[in-house]
Amino acid sequence: MPMLNRENLVNLALAILLIAVPLIANGLGQPFYITLATRVAILALAATGLNLALGLGGLVSFGHAAFFGLGGYVAGILAAHNFSGEPVIFGLGGTNQMWVIWVVSILVSGIVGLAIGAISLRTSGVYFIMITLAFAQMVYYFAISWPAYGGQDGLSILVRNQFPGISTMRPLSFFFVCYVILILGIGLFALIRASRFGAALQASRQNEVRVATVGIRPFRIRLTAFVISAMLTGIAGALFADLNRFVSPSMLSWQMSGELIVLIILGGTGRLFGPLAGAALYVVFEYALGGMTERWQFFLGLILLLVVLFARGGLIGLLAGKAKHG
Amino acid sequence: MVEPVLEISGLVKNFGALRATDGVTLDLRPGEIHALIGPNGAGKSTLIHQICGTLRQDAGTIRFVGRDVGALSVAERAQLGLGRTFQVSSIAPDFSALRNVMLAVQAKQGSSFRFFKPVMLDHSLIDTAMAMLERVNLGARARIPAAELSHGERRQLEIAMALALGSKAFLLDEPMAGMGPEGSKSLTRFLDTLRHEAPILLVEHDMDAVFALADRISVLVYGRVIATGTVEEIRRDPTVRTAYLGDHA
Ligand SMILES: Nc1ncnc2c1ncn2[C@@H]1O[C@H](COP(=O)(O)OP(=O)(O)O)[C@@H](O)[C@H]1O
Ligand SMILES: [Mg+2]
In chain A, N or C: fewer CB atoms in 10 Å? Predict the structure, then answer.
């Protein structure tokens, strides 16, 4: 049983807050805030994926936009083919069923994650950061130069994809879909972190040689974590495309990769609800400051600087204190 | 003669122009403590690193429990039962002492690819790890983050991890270093019992401990073994006296 310590209370409050905002907004007839909350949920899910690699494994991937964007393109491409009736590949058609799209997103980002991870994880430190960035840039330029799916202009999803029994075009319904997947994603993160695999992963972050010395190969542990991480970020990308009903190469850009890292640092690296806290902070900032000044990212940078200098544990660290490792 | 557990022959390792290991041949037999002594920079740690796989030899062979392990990874050698401690303690600093040992227990039990059962509810891990900590007198410190343990306690923690692996040989790189006289004495007593579990290749500067524990001693100078023998033989060996032992003998 999870104990009612301070961090769990903070986490619970965040989870309730995230669901309260769209409910109230719905009551007040303000769908815009529902969209904002959905955006928070999806970005938090993407960052939860990255948090597995970065927070637990210490793998600073600067290329997770590749998985986010791939998930997005899976949604866009399958929807486009469903609309046109043309097969995608091997005679298989498109679909407008979200759950099919999610499964395909997970598979595609998992396979690409396996390939990128298998090569990148042979390096470490700055080289790892650079090589993951390079791979993501390759995917980015591939998307830009592929006119069939919109190239630079991106791809619209005319009607949001469907989920049985839910009218996904209603903002609140779609929010709940995203919220449930976010909670499942966070739950998966919690399970993994507490497991044997999680122990080996976190130990590899702290001391790779020690892990090898007890007979565990850090490479395999990290690669597996990288793939799971890519899958989670991939499914978030599919949801993001459905939220915007649009997918473009910007989802694959290095700025997107950076944004995911920023979310984690803002919220608290390796913390269970760090990505959600970070995503909430980020989206509120983007909305509040973005309305006032075009240069809102300057202020975001300032905050990030303060967090790195004075509040290493991010927002969760400020609210709940230092992380406990048992 | 009984088959040695560990057999090194003709081992060579160069760091640029420096030959840190220069044709080293030695073995470790069941039940013995084989001490490896020599001045600073003689290449003792470099030798341990090659046996464990953290460094790759340039030439020579390393046989362990009847297998040529010279090309295996660190993790594979550990799985075969090579348990080691480092000259500078190597631990997972954020984890408690208990969780450090639990990591070794989980490795010993087999798979780290289990994703759903929380380790802190897994009594097969916790109980075994606790028992190992008790054996090295660290039971009371189980829940302390490893980073907060004293120098000597980290040493004990590393030994507990090697124990948890069910090691078939222990390679201990200066386990007494930085311990007070009391700590050294109790560790000496402990190592004396540990040899019954598995033989020990002991790199150590503390001559009292070496003379008290060792069945055989090898003397390493400039990467070469200049003598191997019993405590008495080494004490009497004139080359060793001039090269290394000085007034100790
Ligand atoms: N990674 C390395 N690169 C270059 N030289 C090294 C390295 N490790 C050790 N040496 C050198 O090899 C020699 C043997 O070192 P070491 O094995 O640590 O000696 P000991 O443990 O006997 O004190 C020393 O001269 C040391 O400076
Ligand atoms: Mg040394």
Answer: N
**Cβ neighbours of residue B2 under 8 Å, at least 6 residues apart?**
B29, B30
The CATH fold assigned to B6-81+168-248 is: Rossmann fold (3.40.50)
Number of separate helices (H) and strands (E) present in chain B: 9, 10
Domain ranges of chain B: 6-81+168-248
Q: Is-contact A229 A64, C-beta < 8 A?
A: yes
Average pLDDT over residues B38-65: 96
Cβ atoms of B180 and B152 within 8 Å: the answer is yes
* Ligand 1 pocket member B233 (CB < 6 A): no
Question: B41 CB under 6 A from ligand 1?
Answer: yes
Whether the ipTM is more than 0.90: the answer is yes
Segment A30-58 shows an average pLDDT of: 97
Q: How far is the CA of B11 from the centre of ligand 1 (A)?
A: 15
Through-space distance between the first and last CA atoms of chain B, rounded to whole angstroms = 30
User: Which residue's CA is the nearest one to ligand 1's atom 18?
Assistant: B45
In angstroms, the separation between the Cα of residue B91 and the nearest Cα of chain A is 6
User: CB of B193 within 8 A of CB of B186?
Assistant: no
pTM: 0.94
State pLDDT tens for residues A123-141.
Answer: 999 999 999 999 999 999 9
Q: Is the dihedral of CA A226, A227, A228, A229 positive or negative?
A: positive
How far lies A127's CA from each of A59, A123, A210, A278, in Å? Answer: 11, 6, 22, 26
In whole angstroms, give the CA distance from residue B172 to residue B160. 12
Nearest CA residue ID for atom 1, ligand 1: B15
Q: Identify the structural domains of chain A with CATH numbers, from first to last.
A: 2-320 (1.10.3470)
For A59-116, the pLDDT digits (tens) are 999 999 999 999 999 999 999 988 887 888 877 888 889 999 999 999 999 999 999 9
Q: How many CB atoms lie within 10 A of CB A312?
A: 13
Task: Specify the pLDDT at position B238.
Answer: 85
